[in-house]
From TrEMBL, chain A:
It is an enzyme of class 6 (ligase). This is glutaminyl-tRNA synthase (glutamine-hydrolyzing). Keywords: ATP-binding, Ligase, Nucleotide-binding, Protein biosynthesis. One of its GO terms (molecular function) is ATP binding. The keyword Nucleotide-binding applies. InterPro entries: Amidase, Amidase_CS, Amidase_dom, AS_sf, GatA.
From TrEMBL, chain B:
One of its GO terms (biological process) is regulation of translational fidelity. Signal peptide: none annotated. This is Unannotated protein. SUPFAM superfamilies: Glu-tRNAGln amidotransferase C subunit. NCBIfam families: gatC.
Automatic annotation (TrEMBL), chain C:
It catalyses: L-glutamyl-tRNA(Gln) + L-glutamine + ATP + H2O = L-glutaminyl-tRNA(Gln) + L-glutamate + ADP + phosphate + H(+). It comes from freshwater metagenome. SUPFAM superfamilies: GatB/YqeY motif (SSF89095), Glutamine synthetase/guanido kinase (SSF55931). InterPro entries: Asn/Gln-tRNA_amidoTrfase_suB/E, Asn/Gln-tRNA_Trfase_suB/E_cat, Asn/Gln_amidotransferase, Asn/Gln_tRNA_amidoTrase-B-like, GatB, GatB_Yqey_C_2, Gln-tRNA_amidoTrfase_suB_CS, Gln_synth/guanido_kin_cat_dom. This is Unannotated protein. GO terms for molecular function: ATP binding; glutaminyl-tRNA synthase (glutamine-hydrolyzing) activity. One of its GO terms (biological process) is translation. PANTHER family: GLUTAMYL-TRNA GLN AMIDOTRANSFERASE SUBUNIT B MITOCHONDRIAL AND PROKARYOTIC PET112-RELATED, GLUTAMYL-TRNA(GLN) AMIDOTRANSFERASE SUBUNIT B, MITOCHONDRIAL.
């Protein structure tokens, strides 16, 4: 694969701020890489060459005038195509939103741009973020830069591939059940799902509101920390945004792991391939060698995560996706009356997986079934949360595989939806608990493909989580 | 196959969700949803009587906005992006019946 | 008393009212677009109002405060609450769900006392967002189908509402009307809403059923689109009679939503929905719980103005008029009761002041321009027999026309001489002498004959005589 330049985002920004590197040159380098490899990867739904050049020129001008263009000056970023960008198509890789240009920017887009970052494109995803392989895009799949016969993971497959292929320094994805961490693992990059409420969801097209979080993909733990330092924080436009400042993660990663307690979940659901398990075992050894203590913990409800998730997420999604009705924006299929228009529009506009989840969620909420399904799933969610909280009294972080396997071949999961859902076995419980977790590349498995290790932590314990991730990363150098 | 969901349920749900599914699609969807709901048997085995449902990942309460007008969106820009508009309004096929 | 006919036989009416009220905020419930009636279509819109992908709601604090005012004014308990999504498709409902309070409404268990003393229970008063407005445009070229379409204006979408749900305690069309008008008065006084039924900022739905006393509740129909206080009673009475006719002819009442048509004075079945409503309520994940502190609740309670019922009681006590009399009711409704009390405090007569304000101040605001002292002086002259009722009216008209004036000066300018009792007595004697026949009848207790005698005195005095005084003199002479 095209190895990205191994310089940190912070050092790039420093050079651009000092005027020693031109943002314009950085943009041209990335556009050249995109031109070379994007046709085979298809990471993007849209490349924003003109906009990126214009933003680079503004940043270079600011620096030349002696003004500070910001902590991400000249750093290129790719955005998952479910984040609203004013006047720029935002499709969620769905026919129902094809060509829709939002009249407003997501909060993260504003913050990134205010920090001097340069958006180079909107990346492909499973339609409405529903999937684990980016095969569910209405605009064709994204391919894994490490092996184009394999999936990049999903749903943020385009964002993971963009960073892995060197199309941008950084990217943002969204993670509802593992949609940042799993593709990060499969593409060999760092991917972070912060604590629920850490990053504003305003302008992120909702999949499942109580689970969705935006987070970064990066080539290094430090870069990921830097992005989160920029996009994290309270947003008055998001009622679920945590109203308190977050400590600097860039500062936190300087500390080692000595004295930290790293938990091994003894009742973790089986299913990880041996190559993945081997890397996880090595990760524990590595941290122990670096001064951490390994402790065994139990999270009994972990194994119920998948089942609870596949009722809660579709239930919320069924409501969130009801607004695509052909009245105000997006696709409309004309019909004789409004009600027929709804059906015709939604049937033509949504893909199979989206329809399946809308159906499942509608069913779980419908009269007579709410208590049996949705209501029970919410109780299981409580169990999972409480089990994690107990575990975090014994351990500062937990370690699991991110994905049960390395990147798989296109079509490998066949026609059985549940086989695909199993990809998220290890990532889903975190979203249900509202906790942070991240995937850090930790060597390779079968056929030299990347393996990720997942570091999980309690609410707002990002600093500790990043310390552990940084220690794993250091050991690989 | 379990009997958690029937084709009639699926047809009713499709109607609620405003999805037009053919009889074949309903049949296929019934099998798929049933397969997924079957995994719920594990959860059914749990004793959840004393467990409070968790609806909020981070406990916040009383999040407010001041009652102050902020600039909104431009009507022309918004209506230009609409499938159909007329007289400053969104146009839809007849809704039938009396105003809801 | 009643303008309604009442129900035939021993049928009993059972009514519960659901009143939707738009709150008088500057902005919408969950976004910063203006909450304003009558603007150009789709000019008060933003990502939240439009239900754009990615938009998120943030609760308007002032809307919560106004909703609490409503609850406290209706003697409700204000409790911690949450918002749910009520899912259904309709083109003027942009997200295809309405955010509303479901099983944990902000206000519960209150009551409203009607002026006649009847107490109506309030089950709940919850917050929710309004929908937009659909205009249904008819076909062209005479085709029934084909050219019809609807136009959607979302200015009203997201406007904060409080839905006030009464218990089914209302037993007559008069009480239903009184409930709505009392509720309206309360809402206006507490500043929660302008409560204009004609502009839709107050909308009444009535759940109507009939039964024989002592029997279980009958099947109810919900009547929508009741657009004026007066039609509340009409619609209910029409609907009750329709149900009675059905039952008495051996049919059953079917639970329906019906539409009140003001022009033909009937209720009509709304289009029957193909499928039963299944709103799939669930907790709105984009909002957090609402739990007003005890301190906040008490602050809102303490700041509530005096409510109409208390004002009527106070005015009744000051004037000696019944609390549910028309004079007390209308003066309180206009908010001019404070003014009447000020006139009394300035030395005027409260009862006379009430009458004058009720009669002559209808076009004035709650704080009339006429200085209270001027009206006080007028009532004093009247009471002292210096002015007859007719003269007082004329003087008052002058005072009102000039936003004040000295009653003595105006009376003098008009040549209103106080007529002393001896000269009045002479005129009374003259009248008796002029019509002995009437006098005889009067002495025999014929009221009409008294009118004739008083009329003679008024004529001979050129209207200067005080009618009451003349009557008193006639009665005196009879003994
Ligand atoms: Mg209602
Ligand atoms: Zn309502």
């Amino acid at each position: 694969m095209a190895a990205p330049a191994m310089v940190t985002a912070a050092s790039i920004a420093a050079a651009v701020r000092a005027g020693t590197t031109k943002a314009a040159d950085l943009v041209e380098q990335h556009l050249a890489t995109i031109a070379a490899r994007e046709p085979e990867i298809h990471a993007f739904n849209l490349v924003l060459a003109d906009e990126a050049r214009a933003q680079a020129a503004r940043i270079d001008a600011l620096a030349a005038e002696g003004n500070d263009p910001g902590p991400l000056a000249g750093v290129t970023v790719a955005l998952k195509d479910n984040m609203c960008t004013r006047g720029i198509p935002t499709t969620c890789s769905s026919k129902i939103l094809a060509g829709w240009k939002p009249p407003y920017d997501a909060t993260v887009v504003r913050t990134l741009q205010a920090a001097g970052a340069i958006v180079v494109g909107k990346t492909n995803l499973d339609e409405f973020a529903m999937g684990s392989s980016t095969e569910n895009s209405a605009f064709g799949p994204t391919r894994n830069p490490h092996d184009i016969s394999r999936v990049p993971g999903g749903s943020s497959g385009g964002s993971a591939a963009a960073v892995a292929a060197g199309f941008s320094h950084l990217s943002l994805g969204s993670d509802t059940g593992g949609s940042i961490r799993q593709p990060a693992a499969l593409c060999g990059v760092v991917g972070v799902k912060p604590t629920y409420g850490y990053v504003s969801r305003y302008g992120l097209v909702a999949f499942a509101s109580s689970l969705d979080q935006i987070g970064p993909f990066a080539n290094s733990v430090e870069d990921a920390a830097l992005v989160l330092d920029v996009i994290g924080g309270h947003d008055p436009h998001d009622s679920t945004s945590i109203p308190q400042p977050h400590p600097s993660l860039v500062g936190a990663i300087q500390q080692g792991v000595e004295g930290l307690r790293v938990g091994r979940i003894s009742d973790l659901p089986a299913g990880a391939d041996p190559d993945v398990q081997a890397r996880l075992d090595l990760a524990f050894e590595t941290l122990q060698a670096a001064g951490a203590t390994i402790v065994d913990v139990e999270v009994p409800a972990f194994s119920f995560g998948l089942t609870a998730y596949y009722l809660i997420a579709p239930a919320e999604a069924s409501s969130n996706l009801a607004r695509y009705d052909g009245v105000r924006y997006g696709l409309r299929v004309e019909a004789a009356d409004t009600d027929s228009m709804y059906g015709a529009t939604r049937t033509a506009g949504f893909g199979d997986e989206v329809k399946r989840r809308i159906m499942l969620g509608t069913y779980a909420l419908s009269a007579g079934y709410y208590d049996a399904y949705y209501g029970k799933a919410l109780k299981v969610r409580r169990l999972i949360h409480d089990d994690f909280e107990r575990a975090y009294q014994q351990a500062d972080v937990l370690l699991t595989p991110t994905s049960p396997s390395v990147a798989f071949k296109f079509g490998a999961k066949g026609d059985n939806p549940f086989a695909m859902y199993l990809c998220d076995t290890y990532t889903i419980p975190t979203n249900l608990a509202g906790h942070p977790a991240m995937s850090v590349p930790f060597g390779t498995g079968t056929e030299g493909l990347p393996v990720g290790v997942q570091v999980l932590a309690g609410t707002l314990q990002e600093p500790t989580m990043f310390r552990v991730a940084a220690a794993l990363e250091r050991s690989m150098k | 196959m379990s009997d958690r969901i029937t084709a009639a349920d699926v047809a009713k749900v499709a109607r609620l969700a405003r999805l037009d599914l053919s009889p074949q699609e309903i049949e296929r969807m019934t099998a798929q949803l049933d397969g997924m709901l079957e995994h719920f048997a594990d959860v059914d085995a749990l004793d959840l009587a004393d467990v409070a449902p968790m609806t909020q990942p981070f406990p916040l309460v009383n999040v407010f906005r001041a009652d102050v007008v902020q600039p909104g969106l431009d009507r022309d820009e918004v209506l230009a992006a609409a499938p159909a508009a007329q007289d400053g309004r969104f146009r839809v096929p007849p809704t039938g019946g009396v105003e809801g | 008393m009643s303008e309604y006919d009442g129900l035939p036989g021993d049928w009993e009416l059972v009514v519960g009212l659901e009143v939707h009220v738009e709150l008088a905020t500057a902005t919408k419930l969950f976004s910063a677009s203006p909450n304003r009636f009558g603007d150009e279509p789709n000019t008060n819109i933003d990502p939240v109002t439009l239900g754009l992908p990615g938009a998120l709601p943030v609760l308007n604090e002032h809307a919560v405060e106004l909703a609490m005012r409503v609850g406290l004014a209706l003697n409700c308990t204000v409790q911690p609450s949450t918002f749910h999504r009520k899912n259904y498709f309709y083109p003027d409902m942009p997200k295809a769900y309405q955010v509303t309070q479901y099983d944990q409404p902000l206000n519960v268990d209150g009551h409203l006392d009607l002026p006649n003393g009847v107490r109506i229970g309030i089950e709940r008063a919850h917050m929710e967002e309004d929908a937009g407005k659909s205009t249904h445009v008819g076909g062209t070229g005479g085709r029934v189908h084909g050219a019809n379409h609807s136009l959607i204006d979302l200015n009203r979408a997201g406007v904060p509402l409080v839905e006030i749900v009464s218990r089914p305690d209302i037993r007559s069309a008069d009480d239903a009307r009184a409930y709505v008008s009392e509720l309206r008065a309360i809402l206006v006084v507490i500043g929660a809403s302008d409560a204009k039924m004609e502009e839709g900022s107050m909308r009444v739905d009535a759940n109507v059923s009939v039964r024989k006393p002592g029997t279980p509740l009958g099947t109810r129909c919900e009547i929508k689109n009741v657009n004026s206080v007066r039609s509340v009673g009409r619609a209910i009475e029409y609907e009750a009679r329709r149900q009675i006719d059905l039952i008495e002819s051996g049919d059953a009442v079917r639970q329906q939503t019906r539409h009140w048509d003001e022009t033909d004075g009937r209720t009509h079945t709304l289009r029957t929905k193909e499928d039963a409503d299944d709103y799939r309520y669930f907790l709105e994940p984009d909002l957090v719980p609402l739990a007003p502190s005890a301190e906040w609740i008490e602050r809102v309670r303490a700041a509530l103005p005096m409510l109409p019922a208390a004002r009527r009681t106070r005015l009744s006590a000051a004037t000696g008029q019944a609390a549910d009399s028309e004079a007390v009711g209308s003066v309180v409704e206009r908010g001019q009761d404070d003014y009447v009390l000020t006139v009394a405090a300035a030395g005027g007569d409260a009862a006379r002041a009430l009458v004058h304000v009720k009669e002559a101040f209808a076009d004035q605001s709650a704080t009339p321009q006429v200085p209270a002292a001027d009206l006080a002086q007028l009532t004093t002259l009247e009471l002292g027999g210096k002015l007859t009722a007719t003269q007082a009216k004329a003087v008052l008209a002058e005072i009102v026309a000039h936003n004040g004036g000295d009653a003595n000066v105006i009376a003098a300018a008009k040549g209103f001489e106080a007529m002393d009792t001896s000269s009045l007595e002479a005129l009374v004697d003259d009248a008796i002498a002029a019509d002995p026949d009437a006098w005889q009848k009067f002495c025999n207790g014929d009221g009409k004959a008294m009118g004739a005698l008083v009329g003679l005195v008024m004529k001979s005095s050129k209207g200067k005589a005080d009618g009451k005084l003349v009557t008193a003199l006639l009665n005196q002479k009879k003994r």
